[in-house]
Write a structure and sequence with these properties.
Layout lengths: L2 H29 L1 E2 L5 H5 L6 E10 L4 E2 L6 E16 L4 E8 L3 E4 L3 E3 L4 E4 L12 E8 L10 H6 L3 E3 L6 E12 L3 E9 L7 E4 L7 E3 L3 H34 L1
Parallel strand pairs: 1-2, 8-13
Antiparallel strand pairs: 2-7, 2-12, 3-4, 4-5, 4-6, 4-11, 5-10, 7-8, 9-11, 12-13, 12-14
């Protein structure tokens, strides 16, 4: 049996399975109970203690984080650094290179509010579709080693190979800050928990069901999953047909 035909069929099967998962996610998104007004959750939770719902509102927090680079107020802030330096490749030639430092993330308790009620959001960073709508970066040049480099644009245009002495090694640090700002409109699909003694309601990751936190609407998320499913099904069909042809040619 030809290996390429077998591998092509196996690849087609894997792509079909991925397409099925995307289709399943779209079905789960469509099946989630859509809540038009958050205040309706209070009434629903009188009769149900575990509900998978789709809600939308704006991000708020009682204790927002003041971001250093952007000046924004956020509820989730990720910070990381990239250190740029010159690495020796010959006696008098150096190559521009960089390395990442581990990122740090700060998060404060936050909630969605649509003007009628508020719902606390728990574990959003683990959710599908989670992203940081705002990103800022600054470059802090090392004036002692390379005084000309003060901006990201200058660093980007620096030739890959540079002549220099040993004391021209450290170029500087690029600081990157990604933020989920206060006031961002988000859709959340998850399980709402029974309100606590203070009357608050939380939404979190459901048991064996998709969990989504995204700036996109539920309809956009559903259509995106359907689109990926269609593409994967088509690709799967192509791989399987190609593999079948190769196996048939070998048999003939």
């Amino acid at each position: 049996m030809p290996k390429d035909g077998i591998l092509s069929c196996l690849g087609g099967g894997a792509l079909y399975l991925l397409g099925w998962f995307c289709d399943s996610d779209a079905d789960n998104l469509q099946s989630a109970l859509r809540i038009r007004k958050l205040k309706d959750l209070e009434r629903l939770l009188r009769y149900e203690h575990r509900l998978v719902v789709a809600i939308r509102g704006k991000v708020f927090s009682e204790t927002p984080i003041n971001c250093e680079l952007s000046g924004l107020q956020g509820v989730v802030v990720e910070q990381r650094e990239e250190q740029y330096f010159l690495k020796r490749i010959k006696d008098d030639e150096w190559m521009k290179d960089y390395k990442f430092t581990p990122s740090t993330t700060k998060e404060v308790p936050w909630y969605l509010d649509d003007g009628t009620f508020r719902v606390n959001v728990v574990g959003a960073r683990r959710a599908g579709g989670f992203e940081y709508p705002a990103e800022n970066a600054v470059f802090e040049g090392s004036k002692r080693s390379w005084p000309q480099i003060e901006t990201l644009a200058f660093l980007k245009n620096l030739p890959l190979i540079t002549k220099g002495k040993k004391d021209h090694k450290i170029l500087g640090v690029k600081r990157i800050e990604r933020v989920l700002p206060v006031g961002t409109s988000l859709s959340v699909v998850g399980e709402v928990a029974v309100k606590d003694g203070n009357g608050t309601i939380s939404i979190r990751e459901p048991y064996r069901r998709p969990f989504y936190v995204s700036p996109k609407t539920i309809d956009q998320l559903t259509e995106e999953s359907r689109m990926w499913a269609r593409l994967l099904y088509v690709a799967s069909f192509g791989f399987i047909v190609y593999g079948g042809v190769q196996i048939a040619k070998h048999s003939i």
